[in-house]
Design goal:
- The complex is a heterotrimer of chains A (about 230), B (about 220) and C (about 200).
- With about 230 residues, chain A is mainly alpha-helical.
- Chain A has one domain.
- In chain A, about 80% of the residues lie in helices and about 0% in strands.
- Chain A is flat and about 55 Å long.
- Chain B has one domain.
- In chain B, helix 3 runs antiparallel to helix 8 and helix 7 runs parallel beside helix 9.
- By secondary structure, chain C is of the alpha/beta class.
- Chain C has a domain of about 60 residues.
- In chain C, helix 4 packs across helix 5.
- The chains are: A mainly alpha (about 230), B mainly alpha (about 220), C alpha/beta (about 200).
- Chains in contact: A-B, B-C.
- Chains B and C meet through helix 1 and helix 5 of B and helix 3 and helix 4 of C.
């Protein structure tokens, strides 16, 4: 009983503000530490790949960023749905705060994917299934942000964005599946950036470290942004 | 509820009939866009035949989206949308009726004109059937999904372009399976799988989109 | 019949009202008065269920209108600021559609009679060609077909009407109330209703 009371206490933007600050600081420090560890593993510990040389190392950032971009969209849709169902202001603010970070990771995934593609396949962009899905995901993020920016009334902006995010999250698997099918139809199974070199344990460790670092960074960034939004609105 | 749906359907069709130029401009847009591609990529017959399904589908998509912007805007402007919100029938049913009317006026004609465009691109005649069927199944889905966007962007500045940004990513699966079905048929394979996926998308969107459209209308008018 | 308690709403950064309560029984007439921009239309929309207030709730016959949804909508007629008629349809078509949508389809004869009572011309012209006053009268003609609907919510019903039409409308409202119905209307001018007005809510 007491735990549920505590939860509602922190659901008020006023009381959440200082807590968010403390969590953000802790996560930022953690993110920096994990990123350092992850980069160390990627650049120094993981072995040089037989076929791709050292250029493949960018996969550590690419895969982690792609995971985060998809994970953050689901989290954003989750907070948006909570805000819509329970009419809580803070949940809607969290959804709006997560969006720019999610968009950024999507962009990083696309960019690192292109950088990987150049030395590996000879072209920056090969319409690989995963990269194309990431591109559409970027449009979904940007659409969410554009819709919220276009609406002056805060309440309508929150709720409209929430509905869009929910419709988006339902469509993401459908889009992903359709792009996969499209890729096999037009390109055959030859070109695929998703077929990573067989994973040595060190490579997996490196990727997980980067993913965790990105995750903590996202929490920190979103909380900092939520504090800005709280200051703006209240 | 049925009488209300019939009433809304009749009303929207009557309004479209009294303003035939609106309908005609959307169709003309479809034809013009499809005619631009050869001017852009060159008129090499094999190339045109290869890109025809995709070009026709993209043109249909854009034309459908253009006419969607007006779906709720007119009713919102003269106050009749409020009356529909206060109607005796569930808002989802009213929304579904409006989408159906929109499709009959802006989607179905595309299915009828598509073979003419296909002729321009020298698409082999046996593929016309698959093309028409894919459009028949896919254009209602475009109307349903697009209506959600139209309801969300009701009354906003930058309306049409914003609607495009929101809705085009969601159109991708329909585009892929729609054009893909004709490509499969062109390669001599069966397009049944893709058409079945389109049919499934149609059923799912017809079942869930009206709820989302109603929610979006309430959000936009509160 | 109609109760509102502790309504609170903020619009455009301004708190329009807080802790607003009202109650309306059958046979009562309520007038919402106030200067332009004071929130009269907004309050009326909250009473309809078109807007959701930040706090407080509206109840119809004891039940929250949020849970009643369409049942509540069937028991009211709302005539908003705009005449809510489609320009491309005739007055008769507009009226019959409005009635069907509200759940009480009207026979063409009844529609014709209602329009005649308001002095609208018989010719079937699209509403686009009618004057402002005629458009408003075409919208108000719905009241003649809504005698069975208990609650009337009217936003500035007397705008753009000449003296004759305004007093006719006033009589309609008075008759409705005397038959046991309830009516709420907003106006920033004097209401030409002969019957005594039950209550006035003045919005700051």
């Amino acid at each position: 009983m007491s735990s549920s009371v505590k939860w509602y206490w922190f659901a008020s933007p006023q009381t959440f503000y200082p807590l968010a600050g403390r969590i953000a600081l802790a996560c930022a420090v953690g993110a920096a530490a994990l990123a350092a560890a992850g980069l160390y593993v990627s650049f120094f510990v993981a072995p040089t790949d037989a076929q791709q040389g050292d250029a493949y190392r960018i996969i550590f950032i690419h895969v982690a960023a792609a995971w985060m971009s998809m994970f953050l969209y689901v989290v954003m849709a989750f907070w948006a749905a909570i805000g819509l169902a329970f009419n809580t202001r803070l949940s809607a603010m969290m959804a709006s705060a997560i969006a720019p970070t999610g968009a950024m990771f999507t962009f990083v995934a696309l960019w690192t994917g292109a950088l990987w593609g150049r030395p590996t396949w000879g072209a920056y962009w090969v319409w690989d299934a995963r990269l194309t899905s990431e591109l559409i995901l970027l449009f979904l993020y940007l659409g969410f942000m554009a819709l919220q920016a276009a609406i002056d009334d805060r309440r309508r902006a929150d709720r409209a964005g929430a509905l869009l995010a929910i419709v988006g999250v339902v469509n993401v698997p459908i889009i992903y599946y359709s792009v996969q099918w499209w890729n096999t139809l037009h390109q055959g199974a030859s070109v695929s950036l998703t077929r990573a070199p067989s994973m040595a344990t060190t490579m997996l460790t490196g990727m997980l470290l980067m993913a965790l670092a990105f995750w903590l960074y996202s929490i920190a960034a979103a909380l900092v942004r939520v504090r800005c939004i709280i200051r703006e609105r209240e | 509820m049925i009488s209300a749906i019939r009433c809304v359907l009749r009303r929207d069709l009557l309004l479209a009939l009294r303003r035939p130029s609106d309908v005609a401009t959307a169709l003309l847009f479809f034809v013009i866009v499809a005619s631009l591609f050869p001017l852009g990529v060159g008129a090499e017959p094999n190339q045109l035949r290869a890109i025809a399904p995709g070009v026709i589908w993209v043109s249909a998509l854009l034309s459908s989206m253009l006419s969607l912007a007006r779906l709720f805007a007119a009713d919102h402007a003269d106050g009749t949308l409020e009356q529909q919100l206060l109607g005796a029938a569930p808002l989802g049913a009213v929304a579904a009726a409006k989408v159906l009317a929109h499709w009959l006026v802006a989607g179905l004609p595309l299915v009828a004109i598509a073979p003419v465009i296909a002729l321009q691109y020298d698409l082999p005649a046996p593929l016309y059937g698959t093309l028409a069927l894919s459009l028949l199944l896919g254009t209602p889905v475009l109307s349903f999904i697009g209506a959600i966007g139209a309801a969300l962007t009701l009354g906003l500045r930058g309306g049409g372009v914003l609607l495009a940004l929101l809705v085009l990513p969601l159109y991708v699966p329909v585009l892929i399976f729609g054009a893909g079905s004709v490509d499969m048929a062109a390669a001599g394979l069966s397009a049944l799988g893709q058409l079945q996926v389109l049919a499934a998308l149609l059923v799912v969107s017809a079942a869930f989109a009206p709820w989302a459209i109603a929610a979006a209308l309430r959000i936009s008018t509160e | 019949m109609l109760e509102a308690s502790d309504l609170e709403l903020e619009r455009g950064g301004r708190r329009l009202f807080r802790g607003l309560s009202l109650a309306l029984a059958g046979g009562e007439l309520l007038r919402i008065a106030g200067a332009n921009g004071s929130g009269k239309t907004t309050l009326l929309k909250i009473l309809c269920g078109l807007l959701v207030p930040e706090a407080g709730e509206v109840r119809w016959r004891g039940q929250r209108i949020k849970s009643l949804r369409e049942e509540y909508a069937r028991q009211l007629v709302y005539l908003g600021h705009a005449p809510a008629v489609k320009d491309d349809l005739t007055a008769a078509e507009n009226l019959s559609i409005a009635c069907t949508l509200a759940g009480a389809a009207a026979a063409p004869q009844a529609v014709r009679e209602a329009l005649d009572a308001y002095g609208l011309p018989r010719s079937d012209v699209p509403v686009r060609r009618l004057s402002q006053g005629q458009r408003r009268r075409a919208a108000l003609a719905r009241l003649l077909l809504s005698e069975a609907t208990p609650l009337w919510l009217l936003d500035e019903p007397f705008t753009a009407l000449d003296a004759g039409a305004a007093s006719f409308t006033g009589e309609l409202i008075a008759r409705h109330v005397s038959r046991g119905g309830a009516a709420v209307f907003t106006t920033h001018q004097d209401a030409p209703i002969s019957a005594a007005v039950a209550r006035v809510i003045e919005l700051a």
